[in-house]
Design goal:
Blueprint: E1 9-14, H1 17-29, E2 35-38, H2 46-49, H3 56-82, E3 84-88, E4 91-95, H4 108-135, H5 148-153, E5 159-164, H6 172-181, E6 186-190
Helix pairs in contact: 3-4
Length: about 190
């Protein structure tokens, strides 16, 4: 590859998940911040080794669950206490507070199950949408797919560590030497 050709970064392949975690930790200790690990399965401790401590998704899911609980309780209270009135283009529909079986209008034990269901529903939807948003999905193209070895092994058993060229500490020669010194099976150029 010519020196004037821009790089997205360098990608190193490792033979074991322990070697990948050790390499990610070492690269992070060297001061690199724009790094990413690509594995076909979860690797315990890998995110922490790379210095990722982002916990926004947990907070988003908690907020979604609390919103779902409030919505479920609020809906039941509204239906049981207030009723509803609708104006659909001149057609007026109205309802009355529900009194079923002679129970109290505010029966919290009866409200628990529907409120729990809306809590789970809202938390699950928040988890899916939040994860997709925070990960930047959908992303139909990523430069790592330009590396032949990644296309062959990335979804099967490949364990890769990518250092992006946008990293302030990135220098192609020094970064390549660092990755090779960490026991990488191979170091590959990632073209944009």
């Amino acid at each position: 590859m010519a020196d004037d050709t821009p790089l997205y970064g360098l990608m190193a392949e490792f033979t074991s998940s322990d070697a990948l975690v050790s390499a990610a930790e070492r690269v992070h200790q060297e001061g690199y911040t724009r790094i990413d690990a690509l594995t076909p399965m979860p690797v315990h401790g890998l995110a922490e080794a790379m210095g990722y401590d982002d916990r926004r998704i947990q907070k988003m899911i908690l907020a979604g669950g609390l919103t779902g609980a409030a919505f479920g309780l609020g809906l039941q209270l509204h239906v049981n206490l207030i009723g509803w009135n609708l104006n659909l283009g001149g057609v007026y529909l109205s309802g009355y507070p529900l009194n079923i079986g002679g129970r109290p209008l505010v029966s919290l034990p009866a409200f628990i199950v529907p409120a729990f269901e809306t809590t789970i529903l809202f938390a699950a939807i928040t988890a899916v949408v939040g994860t997709l948003a925070l990960c930047g999905f959908p992303q139909p193209y990523h430069p790592v797919f330009n590396v032949k070895r990644f296309r062959e092994r990335g979804a099967v058993d490949g364990l890769f560590l990518c250092v992006e060229a946008e990293d302030p500490k990135f220098d192609a020669a020094r970064t390549r030497d660092l990755l090779q010194g960490l026991g990488a099976r191979g170091v590959y150029d990632v073209e944009p």
